[in-house]
Amino acid sequence: MTSTVNPLTAEQLSATTLLRFATAGSVDDGKSTLVGRLLHDSKSVLTDQLEAVERVSLGRGQEAPDLALLTDGLRAEREQGITIDVAYRYFATARRRFILADTPGHVQYTRNMVTGASTAELAVVLVDARNGVVEQTRRHAAVAALLRVPHVVLAVNKMDLVDYAEPVFAAIAEEFTSYAASLGVPDVTAIPISALAGDNVVEPSAHMDWYGGPTVLEHLETVPVSHDLTGCPARFPVQYVIRPQTAEHPDYRGYAGQIASGMLRVGEPVTVLPSGRTTTISGIDALGRAVDTAWAPQSVTVLLADDLDVSRGDLIAPTETAPEITRDIRATVCHLHERPLRVGERVLLKHATRTVKAIVRELPYRIDLSAGLAHDNGPAELAVNDIGAVVLRTAEPLPIDAYADSRLTGSFLLIDPADGTTLTAGMAGEAFAEKHPAVNTTADDEGWDF
Predict the structure, then answer these.
(1) pTM of the model
(2) N or C: fewer beta carbons within 10 Å in the chain?
(3) How far is CA 112 from its chain centroid?
(4) How far is residue 409's CA from residue 378's CA, in Å, rounded to a whole number?
């Protein structure tokens, strides 16, 4: 395959930072067209891909290529002109590398937006300039806030259809910024664009001389990347125990995994959780050689000074900053499965590399995003795409952080123990710092007695 541009060299790529971002917005706001325009105008489209899009567009009677087809890959998406699945794309410029997730706009695909934005450092929320801020716009802004996405771009699209009027853009920007601030979104940047015409996507618009801010690509290239995890407390979930027991390594016992956050140092006192046993790091092996220091997100093998009972699912953390362990978890969740989640449900809770049994004790409330952030207290169940609060009781204690402190060790999944189906995505702690009554920890009397 050939490309429309000369690719960046390996040296250039290694010198650039990585930004993960997601696009969201209501139906027909132009998300896929924006992504296609971004890829096309930044010369990140392979020639044969563009030719295929041109053929399909001509077959539909369109004179110009429909750039939305660059991301809407499912047949159902192309036939209906909508986005259903999350489309991931990778591209790079001389200044930065990007992984983007083009997420659906329909209400019934809210769970897909949660999936796409769960690892994003930035969310691009599109608004049709003719319609302004609508219910789904507020929904996606709330999801971005719940997932602690640090940067949000409001892309006011289809400005060409409102004669590039500055008052239209200003009113929408003011309404959205005010709403985002009420959610606690720390950073909002509003940009007027026309994805179809290319205005302010990669190149500045000649039709909006009243706008002096960055284009979408310029902002993506320059926004501070906040996924440096080395300043956070160290967390090392154990994935595998290495015990060769060979003539060359008769006593080697190492614990392999990926550092989720922070830094580990040889000689540092650490605690193994959930057992609470303490020891020190006697060695760190990385890429086949011994090192004194390792940091997130490196994959390493840690050696401990004492022979402790450590296995997959345990967490190694510096003693001074070790998390508390608990069996009672209050969390904000998005329910992903068609089967509802109800009180009394027996589930498996997967946190980092550890999976334990759990019971749904309470459903304190469901968030009604169509009515601002109103709480529907004590719902009978959480249906697919619902966002709400749960109280869980686990069979074994877990060293879980608050999601507000760590998106990696503060998140978890609820899984069907019968068939392994993923049911719910969870974020430990409260949404928007809401306060609620204490957890009910009465014992279960129907088999899972914890």
Answers:
(1) 0.80
(2) N
(3) 11
(4) 28
